[in-house]
User: Which sequence fits this backbone?
């Protein structure tokens, strides 16, 4: 049964080749000062940085530089960005990059004028912002996190070895996002496939929960099939526009609040993966890939009918054998596809060592929406199997 | 390939049992005068009218009554509503009913302050509004049209025997819509199944166009499967909340601009159905049902691969035989489902007579996005087969 919910997603998206042409029009809606947020400088190499700076200057903007945001943006870095935004009375935060940069921008938007400690308020107590929120706009250069059309913001606290996400409401969602699939072409293949698995797993996290025959589950299955089909084309030719555009569009819908409407969700793979990430600083999508199969095989008996449905509807497994056999064949088909993409299937390859297991287990939050609530022993077991 | 597009759908939805509780909070965002728009009075019988009036008065609103909007709202009626809105300097148009009432409210919203003739401007020349737009809110009592989360507005010009839809931009979309599936329980079964077919056909109109393997097509297939599954449950027990809530939610996503993003669309079934509606004043969904099979069988050779995919992915037809045999089996499965629901499968039962055919053909607009552009002779042939 669809539970009660509110749906509101006002982000305006410009999608396609030359979508950047819309930036000027959007910029005119905001004040003079723009904080330009980006990562390690790949946008300087690609020429995108100059292109955007030119548009900003042509629109008469004053630019506050905020480059060098790291892949897993830290609380320390957030404090720097929030001070920068407040000191310069910034009117718009323009994030140019992937999910980390967008997530960071959203964190800055609710932290600049926050009287409280933002980490404590948003990432420990999960409170909603009560201060002025600075509007965010995004130019996406990597597909995966869906951050371009949601209120999610994951921040890492290195001191406490914690990587935690807060999903803010529609006030914090980007006002606009520019999605040009060609801007993702410069991404190394490893980042591309990690992003693809992140997308796929976002759908899984929302799909593997609840027993009902809901619209949401059917949409999730359609989206998974689209990701599988497009990923194979993109693996063959990363400059296949059809494949890359479909991956980009699927990424947005995999995590823009539609797929969780009216239903419970799991998110335990993300909790495990984020804990691995806090210890290894590994690429997010790879941490998810490395823990997924041990986790799903562990919970399969508790959500047998859904895993069977997954096998039949997503992977086209023949409906022969016991429910468990069919369900396991679905996970095997998924494993084959993950190997085909070249995903990292164990956490050792990401730098995790046996002596880290207890610490990673401590850092893993236990979710209650999935088919089974993990005990600490089960978390340790799954992590050991992921080594 | 996904073509370039903009996506922006800011309508806020409150979905579920007692969703009406959110009305007060929304009303507080608008000024004092609310034009209360509704249909033939079924909301008075059900008690919904009193409930809403009580909320309006509790919020200190002045209510401008605009009841009695007919199922296919006319241009004549639109002029009355627009004058009412302007004369009373209405701050919010609150539509309580199904798609016709919502469509009418949107037409009033762009017509009240329109200096030009609204019919000519919006429904003949398809121009965008340049005047002040009055905000619209909806309380939905019938599922089908998707009008609660789009900019669509269909108006009938009885004098000219034309029923034409204009799809306005996000400024005209409802600011909020309240979707309580239980409010659809009072609908007679015939209206319920007509609404279900309207939903299904909205998906078909967007699906049966283009050759690509896009995210959109996969989402469309998922949504169609959800509608088929829920419709069977609702037919057995119209008070099955799970079924009715899934139908309501599918209706919204079938036509809230997602399924046409980056692709061409057809809409010829709607053109045929609307022309039949202009002559017979029959229920919209039934007019679509009555012309669909002759139309789809006629265009099948031109879109063979998509009809085959439809058979395999939506109806689970066995992949045996020629492409054409598989594709035709898909349409047979669809026909069986339509009979199961009790849909009207010919236009004679809707009041159309052979002598009307030429006139209906004249009133049928020819679309260019489908697999085949119809000639007038083909339109006549399809209409004759629909008799």
Assistant:
């Amino acid at each position: 049964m669809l539970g009660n919910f509110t749906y509101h997603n006002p982000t305006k998206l410009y999608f396609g080749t030359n979508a950047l042409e819309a930036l000027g029009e959007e910029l005119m809606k905001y004040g003079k000062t723009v904080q330009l947020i980006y990562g390690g400088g790949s946008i300087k190499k690609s020429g995108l940085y100059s292109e955007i700076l030119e548009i900003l200057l042509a629109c008469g903007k004053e630019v506050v530089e905020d480059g060098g945001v790291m892949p897993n943006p830290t609380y320390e870095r957030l404090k720097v960005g929030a001070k920068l935004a407040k000191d310069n009375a910034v009117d718009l935060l323009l994030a140019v990059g992937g999910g980390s940069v967008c997530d960071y921008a959203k964190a800055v938007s609710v932290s600049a004028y926050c009287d409280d400690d933002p980490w404590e308020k948003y990432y420990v107590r999960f409170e909603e912002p009560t201060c002025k929120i600075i509007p965010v706009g995004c130019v996406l250069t990597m597909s995966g996190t869906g951050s371009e059309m949601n209120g999610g913001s994951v921040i890492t606290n290195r001191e406490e070895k914690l990587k935690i996400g807060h999903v803010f409401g529609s006030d914090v969602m980007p006002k606009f996002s520019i999605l040009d699939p060609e801007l993702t072409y410069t991404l190394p293949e490893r980042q591309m496939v990690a992003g693809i698995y992140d997308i796929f797993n976002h759908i899984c996290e929302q799909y593997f929960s609840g027993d009902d025959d809901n619209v949401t589950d059917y949409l999730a299955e359609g989206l998974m099939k689209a990701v599988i089909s497009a990923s194979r084309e993109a693996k063959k030719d990363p400059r296949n526009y059809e494949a890359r555009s479909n991956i980009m569009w699927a990424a947005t819908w995999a995590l823009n609040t539609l797929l969780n409407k009216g239903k419970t969700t799991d998110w335990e793979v993300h909790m495990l993966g984020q804990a691995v990430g806090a210890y290894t600083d590994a690429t997010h999508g790879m941490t998810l890939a490395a823990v997924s199969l041990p986790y799903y095989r562990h919970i399969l008996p508790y959500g047998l009918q859904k895993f069977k449905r997954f096998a039949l509807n997503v992977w086209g497994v023949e409906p022969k054998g016991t429910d468990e056999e069919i369900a396991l064949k679905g996970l095997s088909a998924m494993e084959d596809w993950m190997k085909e993409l070249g995903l990292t299937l164990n956490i050792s390859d990401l730098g995790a060592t046996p002596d880290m297991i207890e610490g990673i287990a401590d850092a893993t939050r236990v979710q209650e929406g999935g088919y089974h609530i993990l005990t600490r022993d089960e978390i340790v077991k799954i992590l050991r199997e992921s080594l």
